[in-house]
Amino acid sequence: MLGYVARRLGFAVVSIAAVVVLTFLLVHLAPGEPMLGSADRRMVSPEVLARQRALFGLDRPLPVQFVRYAANLARGELGESFVLHRPVAAVIREALPNTLLLGAAALLLAVGLGLAVGVLQAARRHSLTDTLLGGATLALYSMPVFWLGLLLLLVFGEGLHWLPIGGMTDPAVHDLLPPLGRALDVARHLVLPAATLGLVQAAAFARFQRSALLESLGAEFVRAARARGLPERRVLLRHALRTALAPTLTLTGLSVPYFLAGSVLVESIFGWPGLGRVAYDAIFARDYNVIVATALIAGVLVALGNLLADVAVALADPRVRLDR
Amino acid sequence: MSPWRVAGRRFVRNRAAVAGAALVALLVLVAAVGPLCTGDPLAQPDPVRLQDRPPSGAHWLGTDPYSRDVLSRTVSAARVSLGIGVGAALLAVTLGTAVGLAAGVAGRRTDQLLMRGVDVAMALPRIFFLLAVFAVWEQAPPVAVALLIALTGWFQTSRIVRAEVLSLREADFVAAARALGVPEGRIARRHLLPHLAGPIIVSASLDVGNIILLEAGLSYLGLGIRPPTPTWGNMIMDGKDVLFSAPWVALAPGLALILTVVAFNLAGDGLRDALDPKARA
Q: Which residue, among B138, B161, B129, has the nearest Cα to B223 in the 3D structure?
């Protein structure tokens, strides 16, 4: 088991290194000036640009720049943001917890709702309930996440005025509230973005769970359990669901890239101050250090998701072979 | 009866799958001839008095903030979405099949090398790469958008194909061919590839929906295929700012997107059920 975890860990490190190298090359080899979008490039004199480049060491040959970046990274230094004139680490430290909060809330919704709907569909397979839920999950699964966000915004924010339409806190009152009130303020702002991100993924989980359950309901051990006279409810929940859970764990780990991609879109719709927003702004501002750092963090999260899923599956399912 | 005819019969008996396939056909038709029937998607007849008008006899789906006809734009954008979705899916599946087949038939060394590479590639945050590339490459033509989406999206297919190849390699008919001295390359082409067709077709049809959603997400952020060329993604972006006063601007392309992706997913699910040898006949 330990050897297995060590090998997966080594693989995670390699893939994170690949992310850093590729992103670094991509942003530095791309045409265009750092710090400037194409529109404002003409408004800055060449001398100023040259001075800026020298200031950040961008006039050196690329290999030299990379070695310096890697050396800094090894010491935990992520460099300085060209645009915000702050250490990149500070920018990430502010944004990352917000994205993790959003992602965790969405994941909880996705797994909980997805599992429940999938089990219900499998229990009532080929009934009207199954068909209706199947239609609903298919529609949700086929929906662009940003469009769902706008729809929820239109209905619950503007139409019904139930929930705030953007930001993470209410700037007018947030600082005056007691701690519990502050938490509630954040929670109210969290509902719509987390629902947007979570619902689409819940549909994916439900579809997957239903077919995994139907498959294991046809297996020998389920027939054996039925033959022993166990009630169908127990067969479904104790026997079939157990074997279908391992793929769900894997899927949960593999869904990290989906949440990251979704967070770029959802955070821009709801003005959620997270990593997706930081990455989006940095990409448009050619803020090299921030771009590489957000890709690095994303790579770490993806690798961590895969690693945790692999280990969880290995722990949960004794049939998984650990060699290789 | 040949396995293909069995699969065909199963598909036809599946009402949801047939509906999906019919919808796909209809959408292809709309994308092909629709733009000839509707007006110019770029025309701005009266940017002052005709902006954000609700649906009417002259503009069936209303007009957008630039007074452009929403129906013409939605229909014209179908070409972009379907073209990129189908084109990129075909390319991605071809690449994935080639690499998966190579890894499956080549020796252990090559296999290990290729699959470790695929593992690393799958761990990369794809969306960040696409965002970064298209932020820099402002005038990327649709072909380049499809190409980059395909180049970053074939990894899953290669894994599926490799797994199939590894199990097929042990099959009796492959052992027989090998015993007769058929070269490995010929075995791969003549004996393995036909058996891989099922999973490959399913993979491709389910990819189309995902790629259409990905392209829509990119163009919603203003990247990839850029305005004024209409795409469903950038039409929703145009509608976002007038969401409360003129919801039809974002609703029309959104519904078109969902309908298209649902159609491809229904057809893909149907193909999977029809081509799955384990499924009940």
A: B138
Residue with tokens 């927003």: A277
Residue of A26, A147, A266 to mutate, testing the B interface (most B Cβ within 10 Å of its Cβ): A147
Sign of the alpha-carbon dihedral angle for A150, A153, A158, A164: negative
Q: How many CB atoms lie within 10 A of CB A231?
A: 10
With H, G, I as helix, E, B as strand and everything else as coil, classify residue B236.
helix
CA distance to partner chain B, nearest, from residue A70 (Å): 19
| 3 state SS for A221-242 | HHHHHHHCCCCHHHHHHHHHHH
Nearest C-alpha of chain A: how many angstroms from B257?
7
In this predicted model, what pLDDT tens digit does every residue of B133-153 receive, in sequence order?
A: 888 777 788 899 999 999 999
A150·B236 Cβ contact <8 A: yes
Q: Where are the domains of chain B?
A: 3-31+67-279
Q: What is the ipTM of this complex?
A: 0.82
Flag if A261 and B127 touch (Cβ within 8 Å).
yes
Which fold would CATH assign to domain B3-31+67-279?
MetI-like fold (1.10.3720)
Cβ atoms of B59 and B217 closer than 8 Å: no
Please report the DSSP string for B108-164 in residue order: HHHHHHHHHHHHHHHHS-HHHHHHHHHHH-TT--HHHHHHHHHHTS-HHHHHHHHHH
Please say if the pLDDT value at position A320 is more than 60: no
Report yes or no: A137 and A206 within 8 Å, Cβ to Cβ. yes
Burial class (CB in 10 A: 0-12, 13-18, 19+), A196: buried
34-93 in chain A: CB under 8 A from chain B: 38
Please name the amino acid found at residue A272: W
Residue ranges, chain B, pLDDT below 50: 280-281
> Which chain A residues have a beta carbon less than 8 Å from that of B216?
144, 146
- Give phi and psi for A40, each to the nearest 5: -95, 5
- Of A15-19, A133-137, B85-89, the one with minimum mean pLDDT is A15-19
Residue whose token pair is 């974002």: B250
